[in-house]
Amino acid sequence: MPNNAGELLKKVRSDSHYIERGGVGILVSDRLLAEPGLTHGFTTRRGGVSAPPFDSLNLGTSRDEPIENILENYRILCGAYGLDYDELALVRHEHGSTVLRLDRSHCGRGISREPLDFSDGLVTNDPGVTLVTCHADCSAFFIYDRAARSIGLAHAGWKGMYKRIGQRLAERLVSEYGADPKDMIAVIGPCICEKCFEVETEIAEDFAREFDCPDIFTPGEKPGKAYVSLHAAAVIQLIDAGIDPDSISVMRHCTMEEKELFYSYRRDGRETGSMAAFLRLR
Ligand SMILES: [Zn+2]
After folding, report:
1. Please, is 139 exposed, middle or buried when counting C-beta atoms within 10 Å of its C-beta (0-12, 13-18, 19+)?
2. Which residues place a Cβ less than 5 A from the ion ligand 1?
3. If you measure from the C-alpha of residue 96 to the centroid of ligand 1, how many angstroms do you get, rounded to a whole number?
4. What is the CA(53)–ligand 1 centre distance, in A?
5. Rounded to the nearest whole angstrom, what is the distance from the C-alpha of residue 112 to the centroid of ligand 1?
6. What is the mean pLDDT of the chain?
7. Tens of pLDDT along 27-57?
8. How confident is the model at residue 63 (pLDDT cuts 50, 70, 90)?
9. What confidence score (pLDDT) does residue 62 get?
10. How far is the CA of 157 from the centre of ligand 1 (A)?
């Protein structure tokens, strides 16, 4: 039986709520929040020192904004949510499916020290390092194996999603730390939604084939265009990795539509900032 995107998205739990501390607004998953051994979040644009059009919590280092502002925003985020600024390690996106194993020797990479090697996913079992990824329409994968006490965090643009970066992340937790998909909890971050993510029909058909899911896209109003559900692609690859659908949840927001909360590359081009996802063991 092929996958049915509509059914799958109904089956997985919608799981996010907005919290604000020290003026810094983030989304959290109730399911991950219930885990005592973990700190996590997905930032919004609220808080921070960035001026328009990057207002105000831009955490993307590749934008045309003074780096001092971005580093100050990281300090503000850390102060609000009890993270140690010196323990952050920031992914350096490749829009692929490479996953890096990190430990405390990587603290500061991409922030106060040289960047990490190119990758889209990070895994660790070291409570001394905080994993960080950046997002502007691109989704995130948070995976926690509570038995093997290991975590993975990934950035998933459409290319990485197509290359199954979420599945690669789960597989890497298995190969590095002896994690078991049966013990994993996975949360998928907000992204550009299936009503807004317009692509060439050819790409949409590639998604349908790759994920064995005919309804992963709907035809667009314009000829040659279609709309793809990245959240469906995310759920299917986690199930393919062996994770129980009951252990998967989705932050069901649209970064393009919700301008008050999110930066969106599709909506604003380079005149926009980036949100960040963070995950650490404690
Ligand atoms: Zn949308």
Report:
1. buried
2. 193, 195-196, 254, 256-257
3. 24
4. 20
5. 35
6. 97
7. 999 999 999 999 999 999 999 999 999 999 9
8. confident
9. 82
10. 15
- CA 40 vs. chain centroid, Å, equals 11
- First-to-last C-alpha distance (Å) of the chain: 41
**What is the H or E stretch that residue 37 is in?**
none
CA of 84 to the centre of ligand 1 (A): 34
- How many angstroms is it from 192 CA to the middle of ligand 1? 5
List, for residues 162-189, the tens digit of each pLDDT value. Answer: 999 999 999 999 999 999 999 999 999 9
Question: Residue 255 Cα, ligand 1 centroid: separation in angstroms?
Answer: 7
Task: Report strand pairing: 150-156 vs 139-145.
Answer: antiparallel
CA–centroid distance, residue 251 to ligand 1 (Å)? 13
Measured distance CA(188)–CA(242) in Å, rounded: 16
Instruction: Determine the pLDDT at residue 270.
Output: 87
Residue 256 one-letter amino acid: M
Ligand 1 centroid to Cα of residue 183, in Å, is 32
Domains observed in the chain: 5-192+242-281 (3.60.140.10)
The pLDDT of residue 141 is 98
Extended strands (E) in 48-197: 88-90, 99-101, 121-124, 130-135, 139-145, 150-156, 184-188
Cα(244) to centroid(ligand 1), Å: 27
Q: How far is the CA of 67 from the centre of ligand 1 (A)?
A: 30
Exposed/middle/buried for 196, CB within 10 Å: 0-12, 13-18, 19+?
A: middle
Instruction: Using only the alpha carbons of the chain, give its radius of gyration.
Output: 18
